[in-house]
Amino acid sequence: MTTNLADGSTFAEAELWVRSGGLEIVLYVIGAMLFTRLAQFVRDRVTRRIDAGFQSSDSLVRSEAAKHRHALAQVLTWVLLTVVYFLVTLQVLRRLGFELGGLVAPAAVLGAALGFGAQRIVQDLLAGFFLITERQYGFGDVVSIAVTGQAVPADGTVEDVTLRITTLRNVDGEVIHVPNGQIVKVTNLSKDWARAAIDVPVPATSDINKVNEILRDVGTKAYADRKLKALLLDEPTVMGLEDLTVDQMNIRMVARTLPGKQFEVGRELRVRVAAALRREGMSETA
């Protein structure tokens, strides 16, 4: 008889809990989890389609529109999930018996108290909003970011962008998280086009006209090379004497390249310049 009474009491408590909103709380939580999975699935599908479109095309770099759409998909998903979690939390609190109207005054006091501590978060969100709307950079861009309080800039490829944080991966494979509100200056190395600049050091006694002729010949042959020409926007040019010391002078050569390809082009041009100068018996260490 005692067992039956206990079972009946447990069942009554469970029934009371369900009627009092417990089932709705469970449904809200499960719904939020399912919506999160759906939103992430849609985001991943959109970004995969953008990446697939780039990989199946003849383009060697992503277009600015594609990079912006990729970043926008990440930001919109983050904002949407934040709003959903906030609304679900309000509904759960209501089902637990909290009067939301009565929480207005305490919330105002708490908000004022937390406002000082949340200034940086608000600053991050506002800065992230303008970063996205102004298209300062997008997914896949190579950037150099000056961060408040850091002497060395954060350099790398943009892997993720939200309203609060920008995630980079540097050449060593390290992941760098930069709060958007602490960004002082952004140098985008892969927007529209880039430039490879090569300073060629030669002995001060060298014939500068001869050196310029050698470098122009290197640029002409590089632009005629099918592999390199695909990365170049025009033929590399010789800017002339850049620096002069007692025993050495530097002659600058520049080349406009596709976004993010300046490093690859620069390395290839240095190899060609070194070989050309060596054939002419000129020592150089470009």
Summed up:
With 286 residues, this protein is α+β, with helices and mostly antiparallel strands. The protein is 54% helix and 20% strand. Among the domains are: 2-100; 194-279, Alpha-Beta Plaits.
General description of the model:
The chain is α+β, with helices and mostly antiparallel strands and 286 residues long. Among the domains are: 2-100; 194-279, Alpha-Beta Plaits (2-Layer Sandwich), CATH 3.30.70.100. The protein has seven helices and eight strands; from the N terminus they run H-H-H-H-E-E-E-E-E-E-H-H-E-E-H. The strands form two sheets. Strands 4-3-2-1-5 form a five-stranded antiparallel beta sheet. It is elongated and about 100 Å long. The protein starts with a helix and ends in a 7-residue tail after the last helix. The model has no long low-confidence stretch (mean pLDDT 79).
Radius of gyration: 30 Å
Low-confidence stretches: none
- Principal-axis shape equals elongated
Kindly name the structural category.
Answer: alpha+beta
Largest sheet: 5 strands, antiparallel
Strand order of the largest sheet: 4-3-2-1-5
Please report the distance between the alpha carbons of the first and last residues. 95 Å
Q: Tally the helices: what do you get?
A: 7
Note the beta-strand portion: 15-25%
The helix content, as a percent range, equals 40-55%
Number of strands: 8
What's the helix-strand series? HHHHEEEEEEHHEEH
Q: Provide the residue-averaged pLDDT.
A: 79
